[in-house]
Amino acid sequence: xVEVVESGGGLVQPGKSLTLSCAATESIWSFKSMxxxxxxxxxxxxxxxRFFMDSRTVLYSRSLKGRFTASADSDEGxxxxxxxxxxPEDTARYFCKAVKSVPGNEYWGRGTQVxxxx
Length: 118
Known about the structure:
mainly beta, single chain, 11 strands, four-stranded antiparallel beta sheet
């Protein structure tokens, strides 16, 4: 069973930056894609970004493109989400999902909490 673990969350002031990390018990390069989602208070889980490992193509939520950057750190073997100019609306639990090429093989982490507040 693959385990996925997010880290890097915390309390951050509006306008600042924060970078989240996602690690898996298998090499991230063994997956078809690595993805970020978030779930704010009383909101459904929402798509943030999808990184295709073979092409390094990244898809973003339209509302977040330009402020958030998803990337793969080859040295660390982790999947990142850089969040810039954060606002209170970015307060959410951020989840990482690792997706295999075989349909149905998806692995979620437990999430890391990001709270944006002054």
